[in-house]
Task: inverse folding
């Protein structure tokens, strides 16, 4: 029988994964632990456990590995990384495979932290040759009715950029993400594996299907970047500046290596996006009517949005003075 410890189990993937693991005949117990718990608590939870699955923050990996190292019973470690570790670059291969060197964009701390965590996991594996280690790199995970920082940043195509500026994209349904970790356990996987649906979709298609898609206001790339950055700072949506490359350059991944072990996604990219999207009056309109409305308001909306950003910036400067 197998005893499993899951750190970061309160996240979207963890909430789907834990019940699945508890339903497996070969699993004797599943213990959910906060990855940020004191080292003594982590060590106590891992004592006697056979498998450790870390779904929590990349920055917590040091304490998690320390706890695993002190638990002599741990024979398998599964780490949740991110496909963002490949980086978003104009010269990226489409799709990216696991043999491609990691090039996380230096401005995006999320990707940098996961790449650093992978390095630590590799070093830990070398120091613990008796432990089988699997690293999973999911594409952006989306979940019905459950938004997160990741889905709002990496899983939301820009509504401010022109269609030709949007890169191809992928979206992984949360149930497929949970299924990949379950499969990593039951299939006894070791090594590094991308986790993504088959293929990818165009940026324009992704935007049309995304939960927040509405009236599109296409702006020149430079203007769009400025508006997105200030919208994020002011809490009006947008994305952090460091994540902008992930909106304009491709970073989709191939799932062939994981598929070869017997895993297969249940949802396509399109199905994952549709399942996760919110209802909207905009979607009840016919495509022709949506186009007419978009064209009629695009100029006004774009000017108003930019004006609002400018006004907010000036007001912020006056307050500092």
Result:
């Amino acid at each position: 029988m197998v005893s499993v410890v899951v750190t970061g189990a309160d996240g979207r993937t963890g909430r789907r994964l834990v019940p699945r693991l508890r339903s497996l005949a070969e699993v004797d117990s599943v213990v959910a632990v906060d990855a940020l718990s004191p080292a003594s608590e982590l060590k106590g939870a891992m004592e006697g456990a056979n498998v450790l699955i870390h779904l929590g923050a990349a920055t917590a990996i040091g304490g998690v590995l320390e706890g695993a190292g002190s638990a002599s019973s741990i024979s398998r470690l599964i780490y949740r990384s991110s496909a963002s570790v490949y980086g978003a670059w104009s010269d990226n291969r489409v799709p990216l495979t696991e043999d491609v060197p990691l090039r996380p964009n230096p401005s995006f701390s999320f990707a940098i932290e996961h790449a650093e965590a992978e390095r630590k996991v590799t070093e830990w594996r070398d120091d613990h040759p008796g432990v089988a280690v699997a690293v999973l790199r999911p594409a952006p995970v989306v979940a019905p009715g459950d938004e997160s920082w990741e889905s709002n940043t990496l899983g939301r195509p820009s509504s401010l950029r022109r269609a030709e500026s949007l890169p191809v994209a992928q979206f992984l349904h949360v149930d497929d993400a949970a299924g990949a970790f379950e499969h990593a356990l039951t299939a006894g996987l070791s090594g590094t594996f991308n986790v993504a649906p088959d293929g990818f979709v165009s940026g324009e298609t992704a935007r049309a299907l995304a939960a927040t898609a509405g009236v599109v206001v296409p702006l020149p790339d430079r203007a769009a970047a400025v508006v997105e950055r200030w919208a994020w700072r002011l809490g009006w949506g947008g994305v952090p500046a460091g994540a902008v490359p992930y909106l304009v350059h491709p970073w989709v991944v191939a799932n062939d290596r994981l598929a070869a072990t017997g895993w297969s996604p249940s949802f396509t990219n399109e199905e994952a996006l549709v399942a996760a999207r919110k209802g909207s009056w905009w979607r009840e309109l016919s495509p022709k009517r949506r186009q007419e409305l978009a064209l009629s308001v695009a100029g006004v909306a774009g000017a108003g949005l930019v004006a609002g950003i400018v006004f907010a910036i000036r007001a912020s400067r006056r307050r500092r003075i």
